[in-house]
Amino acid sequence: MSLRLFLRSSSNHSPLKAALSNQIHHLTSRPVLLAPFPSPSPRLHRDFHTTRVSRDRSFTNLLADDNPPAVQVSSISEAGILLADGLLLPGACVFLEGKVFLWDVPQTNLRSKVKEERWRGWGEERFQLLEVVAPRPEILLLGTGATLVQPPLFLREYLSTLGIQLDVMDTRNACSTYNLLAEEGRRVAAALLPLTPYSWPRTKVTGANKLSP
After folding, report:
1. What sign for the dihedral angle of Cα 194, 199, 201, 205?
2. pLDDT of 104-139, one tens digit each?
3. Are 8 and 100 spatial neighbours (Cβ–Cβ below 8 Å)?
4. Which of 120, 91, 124, 93 lies closest to 108, judged by CA?
């Protein structure tokens, strides 16, 4: 398992959190960056639609819930993915069940002209989090960074065995699509690579299933 539960939990006794306690092996420190942060170039910065609690009822998304999703993307830039509450995520992450997970992924060159090099080091273990949630998401949005890159060959077949549809797009479009589907109450997950490669820092485990601060 290569994910760590990070913020965004609606309950301190979540079944998902308990199910993951014995499966997290790759850990990171707490790389939280909060606004304000250096404003990126307008060319590299893109804002997204987010749900507001107070709405003008004359213009309403009929499919949207009255309660905004727990996780929403405000914008994305070379600095990282900025959530609606001001938290900046500079590295790869997963959105699932209203929670944010830091995602430990291989640092490979997805733009390589050699297909075999693009996803070297990737396997099913990078997506095992999806096996322990119930109900599983209907859709996984895979954001492949600044440009769309076709996913590794094993991924569609693997997700199909879990009953999950895979949609692949660049990370900007994946964030925008996630906002819309989450607002409509769909069971959607997103696995997002940053526009600029970034490796989460790591910490040592001081005890069994214990995270260092």
Report:
1. positive
2. 999 878 878 887 788 999 999 999 999 999 999 999
3. yes
4. 120
